[in-house]
Predict the structure.
Amino acid sequence: MQSQDVAPRPAPSPSDLAVDVEQAEAALVEHYPRLVRLAYLVLPPSLGRNRRVVTAHALTQRALPRSRAQAPAIPARSTGRNGDPGYAFVRLQVLRTALEAGLPLKRTALPKRSQLPPLLPQVWGLRLFPRSGGADELALDQRLSALSGPARAAYVLRGLEELPDGEVAEVLTAAGCEDPQDALREADEVPEQYALLDSPEFDPCSLHARPTDLMRRRQHTRAALAAAAAVAVCGVLFGLPGDGWAPDGAAAPVYAQNPAAEAALDPAELLRVAPTAWTTSARTDFSVWPARGDLTGDKALLRRALAVWARPGESVQVSATPGTPSGGPSGPPQLLYAGNVDSARVVMLYDGLRIARYAEPKSGTKGAALDFARVDGADRSEADALVLNRADGNVRYLTAPWVKQAAERDLLKPASGTTPLALTGGVTAPLAGPAAESGDCTSWKVLQLTDATGTRLSTDLGELVPAHLTTGRPGATHEVTGAAALHTWAPYACSLASMRSAGVRTVNAWAYGRQPLPDASGAADWVCTRAETWRGGGTRVLAQFHTPGGAYGAVAAKAENVPACGTKDPHVLAGVLWKSEAKNWYLLAAGSPGTASISTTGGVSASTPGSLLAVRAKQGVRAELAGTLEDGRQISGLH
């Protein structure tokens, strides 16, 4: 849903706003679980799940008016719970205090009651938190935590209360939000997954309980009086710094225990998906992968993997694809694999946004490595496989549960056929890695996987997730199957080396032009390869030129972060200086289909109708290309 600026309706008259205590109490009792859920979702996640639960109940219980009251700027005809003015009033009170609880504490003003830990309800000796949800709920919680309080409230009012934007703006204004339109626009950044708001992950009325620190509780009791006295003395001696209570603002001390963080370190809390879940789920991504490997029951290994993810030591080699955060999980991740692979023990985990791979030598933990890769929004073709291990120039993959066959193919030799790879528990036999970035490129081995929907090719570019290879015009790409598609890729396979370690998601090769050479020695092919990334930015485009009989294509032009050759702009124009066998130099240029004319200025001045240009030139000359499309739009040459 994209928000539109909607002015709140004029405030109703006071007679419309009167709400009886009994009416508000009846609404609170009837809708208590919903109101507590609303408060929990709006409260800042930085409070921690235990305090959010207790605070949500406290704010809801304090929402009753003390006498016949006025509900500012909320008309009795509000759509809340079938137009009940009592519910509209109580909801407004809960929303206002939940937003106040997220405001930073300031030295210049006394804190509001909602900003302090609640006196009631109070639970001693236990930590409370809602039941854990799945990967979707975890991803949504992470996205909501990045929003401001008003934006979270706007998202919740849209999804949980099903209010239109006009009423959302009204409620936010009445709750004290200074710019409700800005909150609505910020809420647009989070995908509409409103059904997840009813998940047990966000239900503070259905809770798990865990004990606090049992070993130290007795010591803490004896130390309480001394600690209280020390705090009182420090409060007199030191002023409160800046606009907050401490340099870290509302953050808990570094030694504080957080239920979500503790659960993320507990191997018993790891999410494990049933082996057949993918057969019935509408999703075909990593969230339906089962846990595999011969060490899925090794709690010590899993505990080490989780602990290193949360707090990697100085000796741990940590790597992450560009744009991938390397912080710890916000809750228990999903276990994908734990087992012995060659000379290492490997654990693969998934938190809804990232794949984390922990590896340690079988001989000990010295030399442990931790790798991260973004996989948000992966589809079936992009969730086919993960790199499990690299050793001696070979790669082992962990394949998706829907994969039936695996094979090795040399992309440089389209007619050479494939070599089957054995699958054992979803793990492939070793596959020769692609060519090194330096030296001769005489082969480029790729992974070919087959399932019920067809065959797909992927290539290792030095990261956890292999890049999916496709071919065809942008917007109508298809898999690299069949002789024509394989021959399209063959001369350009070695150019994939320039895309290593860039967070590449897919690479498409589009044969957009074929140009007769001016010396009548045959026709050259023009191909545009475009690499899309998981983070969105950093796309790479290569325009390549391949002459008859040549083993490899030559890069004629390249660019980054441009729309050319992509679905948003399926057009390209590129040129190259070419030397004939008679040692004559030519400027050759080709535009994609739909190019009406090409012109060149600078060192060479010429123009021609159509999508191909060939003109005599001098060695080393520089020229600027421009093209006109059939619809009249101008395009420039790729640089």
Q: What stands out?
A: The two ends are 38 Å apart (CA to CA).
